[in-house]
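User: Reviewer 2 asked us to show a designed sequence for the structure in our supplementary figure. I'm pasting the C-alpha cells here. Could you produce the per-position amino acids so we can include them in the response letter?
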C-alpha cells in the first residue's frame, strides 16, 4: 500500500441494504420493530427509530416497508413478486434539510407511489377500451362493406375512441 494513499473507507451498513429472504434474519428486535410500526399505523402516529449505527434500523425498515417491491414495480410493468399490496412507505431524509425540502420529497414520493398503484387499473381500462374499439371497428367495416351501402350510411365515429 502506498503510504501517501489513504486507506479505503469502510462501507456503511446503510449503503448496502439488501433484504432478501436469505440475508435477513427476523430477530426479537425486528419483531419489536414490527410491533412498533403496527402501533404507529393503528394509532396514526409518526414513529422515530434511533440507536447506534449498524444495529439494523434501516434493514428492519426496508424489510417492513417492502421497499424493494416498490422499486421492482416502479421499474418494471409487472406487479410485486408476492402479489401483496404495498401499503407502507419508507422515507428517510438527509441529516441537513429544510421543511420545504422534506415536503417536496414526500410529495414527489406520494405521486410516484400513486402512479404505481394506478398502473394496473389503467392497464385494465386500456385493455377494455381496446377490445371495445376492435369490436366497433369490425361492426363499422361490416356496415360499410355491405352491398348497396353508400358513403352517407357510414356509422358516426365516437370521439371517445380518438386518440
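Assistant: Here is a per-position design you can include in the supplement:
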Amino acid at each position: 500500500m502506498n503510504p501517501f494513499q489513504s486507506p479505503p473507507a469502510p462501507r456503511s451498513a446503510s449503503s448496502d441494504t439488501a433484504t432478501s429472504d436469505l440475508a435477513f434474519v427476523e430477530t426479537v428486535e425486528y419483531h419489536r420493530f414490527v410491533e412498533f410500526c403496527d402501533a404507529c399505523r393503528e394509532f396514526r402516529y409518526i414513529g422515530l427509530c434511533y440507536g447506534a449505527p449498524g444495529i439494523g434500523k434501516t434493514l428492519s425498515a426496508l424489510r417492513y416497508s417492502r421497499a424493494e417491491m416498490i422499486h421492482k414495480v416502479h421499474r418494471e410493468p409487472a406487479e410485486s413478486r408476492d402479489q401483496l399490496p404495498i401499503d407502507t412507505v419508507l422515507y428517510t431524509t438527509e441529516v441537513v434539510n429544510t421543511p420545504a425540502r422534506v415536503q417536496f420529497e414526500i410529495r414527489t414520493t406520494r405521486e410516484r407511489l400513486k402512479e404505481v398503484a394506478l398502473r394496473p387499473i389503467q392497464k385494465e381500462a386500456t385493455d377494455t377500451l381496446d377490445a371495445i374499439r376492435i369490436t366497433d371497428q369490425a361492426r363499422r367495416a361490416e356496415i360499410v362493406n355491405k352491398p348497396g351501402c353508400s358513403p352517407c350510411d357510414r356509422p358516426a365515429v365516437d370521439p371517445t375512441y380518438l386518440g
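For the response letter, you might also mention the following. Residues 1-20 have pLDDT under 50 and may be disordered. Residues 93-147+157-163 form one domain.
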